[in-house]
Amino acid sequence: MKITVDFEECLKDSPRFRATIEEVEGDVCELESKLDKLVKLCIGMIDAGKAYNAANRQFVNGIRELAQQSTKDEVIESSLTKFAESLQEMINYHTILFDQAQRSIKTQLQTFVKDDLRKFKEAKKQFDKVSEEKEAALIKNAQAPRNKQHEVEEATNILTATRKCFRHIVLDYVLQINVLQSKRRSEILKSMLSFMYAHLTFFHQGYDLFSELQPLMKQLGGQLDQLVVDAAKEKRDMEQKHSTIQQKDFSNDDTKLEYNVDADNGIAMEGYLFKRASNAFKTWNRRWFSIQNNQLVYQKKFKDNPTVVVEDLRLCTVKHCEDIERRFCFEVVSPTKSCMMQADSEKLRQAWIKAVQNSIATAFRDKGDDSEKLDRKSSTSTGSLDSGGEPKERSLKGESALQKVLVIPGNACCCDCGQPDPRWASINLGITLCIQCSGIHRSLGVHFSKVRSLTLDTWEPELLKLMCELGNKVINQIYEARREELGARKPNPGDPRHEVEAYIKAKYVDRRFVRRPSDEELRNKVISLSKQEKRLSSSIEHLPPRPPPPTPKLRPGSNVSGQSVKSADSGIQNSADGSREMLANTPSNNSLADAEAAESPPMAMPATLPPPSPCKEMVFYEPKEYSQGLQLYWASCARSLPDMAEALAHGAEVNWVNTEEDKRTPLIMAVQGGSLVTCEFLLQNAANVNQQDAQGRGPLHHATMLGHTGQVCLFLKRGANQNAADIDEKTPLSIAVEAANADIVTLLRLAKMNEEMREAEGPYSQSGDETYQDIFQDFTHMASNDPDKLNRYQQYDLQRP
């Protein structure tokens, strides 16, 4: 409550004035006490906040350390790192809040107490002193005798001077009281309001920070639900396996060790043995022995490099040792040294002796044909599909994909609102997005936009090339062509979400800003694209012939033992025995065709196959009607992604059928054009990978006939039906076998084997055979990064007379 002292009343020095002064002094004293207490509490709060921040900072460091320890799990590492960054930001916001509390509460109120209340106290002391002097002067003046004139005059003069001094001091005191009462209100409200605004800023910053983090948290929440389901399933499976294994009879476990020269990892036999040292003490040490590459080696720890006991088993013998004290011993003797070993039982000793003898026999049998035998190296041996031996570019993730995509013109800012440094992308549109716009795109549905993270997700090479051939600048020229004409305002970073959402829906769903071409413009566009396709085809016809590169090999240590595919120019006849076994043993309706292909001359090409060169088939006829589907049709063949995106924006049906040209689709024309990225773009925009033409041939048929290995690999990954037959009852596999295209035969065979393995594993199987995954990944990278290695069929066709 504000207490004001009247200046007129103070001159009267009435009891009312004295009561008011007494009330004011009591109020000021209580105010000082409350302010001192509030300042002390503020200091305690700030100290506690600093301690909280210190503990919170240690907690965040613990999260970072856990993220660094989880480098093998990309989801956990990236998520924990992002969470730690967000929590660190909150610690910074807390620090700012406590600094503001110190400035607004502690410093400001302490200054008010020390300065203004001190002045009040000094004025009060002077007022109390002059009040006493005035009271004494009044008493003395009242006591002066009437008959003593000089005492009366002295008392009167003293009283007059004292009253004059009292008047000045009491007016100053009242002024100080009134100023203090007025300033008290402003100072307290000012400090508290500043403190509350600091809180407002703190919570706003926290809300903005976690609003950006919310989509990631929702995404991780969805993944977590799936992880919980997967963990429960894995737990049930492991409990079932545990119960099954627990019920087994392990009394004869010694017999489980068997020799297998065709083992997947190239290790014919392995297990623990005691080895007698060659030192003077003849100590026995337990080591992990294995027979691999016609060598006997051992390891102490898994990460240790194997120590070679016998360099070449062809030069050694093995025998029992009964003349030493230990049981179950045997000795491997080479020309330079001997090695004494001990098994755990008699059955294991016999198994090891037999394994060494079999390895010796195998080594002698394979001595004459080292150049043609299959690699039986261990899983650590080198080997890949890259024939050149150069390091392969794996699927990009995180900063690598981000850097490649953001250098494309316009991609450094969000395509829809201009927010710099976007971290998300729409893969079917080929644009980059900020986190807010990515959430809006995701709400549109995958038939409009497929959103993927540039930092958290793995990027296949063909998808990354698709992003690099489009970009924000190209797409905005299509989807924002009439924006300025219609007077529509493009959102800016920080605009309300509902405004940005309305703009994005108008742009991509309603396609309000797309400029519709006239009939004449559409006709000219289609004719131009058809001519462009002819120029591309002519350039292919006149390419100089080049010798085909060597065919990539299958990985050693894969689940399909001994698979190897030679170059198509050498024919399937020259492929390794293991590869022929793999091709022959795989279920097929074309075994006769397989046998004929395997025994045909290396360069035989059946005359019944259609010419593989696209320029020999693609002829432009004046259509009955020009449409957006026709533009997409010829743009797909001409490999023009901007024109394809424009046709889709104008409403073209991605599975449009050209009834005038054997019911071919844009995807089939993309195969004819030979572009892997064009096929990827259509598939991302819901193209049907199994739609057939009038001849009953789907995209996989056409890619096989043209020898486009990269496209075959892509279609198989996207679920193409390799068992579909055309009107001549030919499947893609039979076509590839007739053409002696070893790469495509390998892909089709492996895809079929993988499908059968997944069916055998049950309905919950997702990945299938690891070999299938590795080989398809290698073909994918080769098709995207070094396609010349897969151009054997086309190069051969160009050299034909």
Keywords summarizing the entry:
Substrate Binding Domain Of Dnak, Chain:A, Domain 2; 56% helix; PH-domain like; single chain; 4 domains; Annexin V, domain 1; alpha+beta; 801 residues; 24 helices; seven-stranded antiparallel beta sheet; disordered C terminus; three-stranded antiparallel beta sheet
Question: Could you please describe the fold and organization of this structure?
Answer:
The protein is of the alpha+beta class and 801 residues long. The chain has four domains: 7-238, Substrate Binding Domain Of Dnak, Chain:A, Domain 2 (Up-down Bundle); 259-369, PH-domain like, CATH 2.30.29.30; 396-509, Annexin V, domain 1; 519-570 and 609-799, Alpha Horseshoe (Serine Threonine Protein Phosphatase 5, Tetratricopeptide repeat). 56% of the residues lie in helices and 7% in strands. The strands form three sheets. The chain has a seven-stranded antiparallel beta sheet, covered by helices on one side. A three-stranded antiparallel beta sheet has the order 10-9-11. A two-stranded antiparallel sheet has the order 8-12. Helix 22 runs antiparallel to helix 23. The chain is flat.
Give a summary of the structure in a few sentences.
With 801 residues, the chain is an alpha+beta fold.
